[in-house]
Request: fold
Amino acid sequence: MNNITKLTIVGLGVTIPMGMATEANAYGLQSGATYYASTPLNLRRGEGTQYSVIKTLKAGDLVTIISNHGEWVKVKVGGVTGFCNAKYLKKSNTSQSAYGLQSGATYYATTSLNLRRGQGTQYSVIKTLKTGDLVTVVSNHGEWAKVKVGSVTGFCSAKYLKKSNTSQSNNLNTLSETYYVYNADYVNVRTGASTSTPVYTILAKNTEVKVVEKRKDGWYKIIIGNKNYYILSTYLTKTKPVSQGNTLTNQTTSNKYYVDTYSLNVRKGAGTSYPIIQKVYRGSEVNVVEKRKDGWSKIAIGNTYGYVSSDYLTTSRPTTNSTTTNVSQKTSYTATTPLAKSSKNSIYNANVIFKKMNNIVVNPGETFSLLKTVGKISTENGFIYSTVISGGKYTQGVGGGACQASTTLFNAVIKSGLTVTHRRNHSIPSSYVAKGLDAMISNYNDFTFKNTSDVPIVINAYTTSTDAVVTITASKDITNGCTFKPRVVSSLDGKTVKAYIEKFKDGKYIGLHQSFISTYR
Reply:
């Protein structure tokens, strides 16, 4: 590989190979300096291809020269020392980049890219950048760049960084269109383009978003901060909303109709296979925004849309028969639980429950099932991740906060004097209600009660800025002038609690209505 000149000292019989001088190098490499591999390069145990390979350097890996040996150099890579061909090493210039990157400028990752603790693949990974993540170049080191991502600084391959154009979105896509959330009060924003991926956050109706990619599978990629997330395209519109109180603004028509049946289901879609959003009652006014040929009408209800059978709508207000269930506001029984210690996501989930059970009528003798009314507690049914109690511990799960809704309903039922037919406590006490007065709900555990009065009752549920509220209303006093109060007795260790629902009239105790035993960990 190199021509070694030999010097023979006459009289001593000694021959010295002149090419073995440790400071000379065929390519001018300097001992102690840092270089990078310009191509994949074998690191060997000695000066020649006859020696075994210790490791293979990748293009851009940095090495420090220990000594020069003509065509070969002894180098150090991290904690490994070996020999490699000097021909394929280039000087690492801290002020220049092999790809023309500028210090102080902003670039984006063109692919998933490891951010490392040093200039080379031998250094540990601090974090992995996602495609489209933005970085600021601190300094250039040939094939590598020192960059800052948020508050984190590290090194990455300069090859996979491209200049970020501030006139475009912080994303690889040149698309950048403004859309607005509609068709629901709140919409889930997910980490991936699937309902099986975790919910990152929720966006309220009318929130403006930047769409950077429209996918064929019905999902749109949006930008929040410097990162990409996904939202279903059915919840986005390009029409900028105009505030008009509680009515929807994207209606092409708005025709006034009235409900002409005792109770009419409002469904999520045009068909009986779709879940019930809520119920409307005889004489209720609805705004029809679309009359369909299949016998269904699309109506604006609250801040969303729903579908009802057109057969039960009329253009004139029907007369109300006093013998039917025209529940007045004569008597009501209200329970509240505080929201002070409830997270934003938990309150959101409580409202999902409340919206599904609001205005529900329970007729005399009927048993109300909260789980059947609400449906499965899942992201597909509108719930998001929040804090839940599982196995005696707080953890993250879908539907956290739903139990505050069921607990508030339980306490309203207690006050009304109706009969609870199924209730179960949590494994540990809840922060928003006294021990023994909580009622959990899950996909495996229901809360039910029976309307033991002789008139229909209506459930109303909502949240204020401070409380979760459930009111049970009837056309007359269903307690026969009595009041129902809980009296809670705990065991010495506090793990077993019995709640006695006692009945009073004119301030005097007249008997026990129901009792509930709770066991906590």
In short: The chain has five domains: 6-91, 106-163, 177-237, 255-314, 331-519. Residues 364 and 415 are 17 Å apart (CA to CA).
